[in-house]
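Let us practice reading a record.
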Amino acid sequence: MGRFPQGLNDQIGHEFAASQQYVAIATYYDALTLPQLAAHFYRQAVEERNHAMMIVQYLLDADEQVTMPGTEAPRSGFTDVVAPVRLALEQERRVTQQISELAQLARDERDLVGEQFLHWFLQEQREEVSSMSALLAVVERSQEHVMAIEEYLARENRGTPPVEAGAPPAAGGAL
């Protein structure tokens, strides 16, 4: 297996790990009866899972081997309502770096189809870092008034277009 397909297989593990981390964050907020924050992170978990499945489909389409790397257990204990969002932003920045490195690897290996495939992910990561940065700012300002955070998310999520519009196909369809 070449370095680029191996990197994509590794990324599958990173995306599943991100999905699990978002489920852990969502359940933390759910236990605090903060349904908007919980729903936001449950949606993020599904999105990250779908990203992994998009990579699986790409590898299948490219007639490359697909491996399912294991993941470490996500962090599930938090000290306050800010810590999970801070962790989520760090995670989004890390995934952005991983995708950027994969795009560079595809370019170095002259895999233009692979590089093009990653362009959607790069755009998605720019949007994810931006929106998570905004959420962190709101949560930091409103940590003593968590219902203000809930109201913010309720307003922000009204009429939101599908996040995955224009996305590459995912293995198993849009489950």
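A brief commentary: The radius of gyration is 17 Å.
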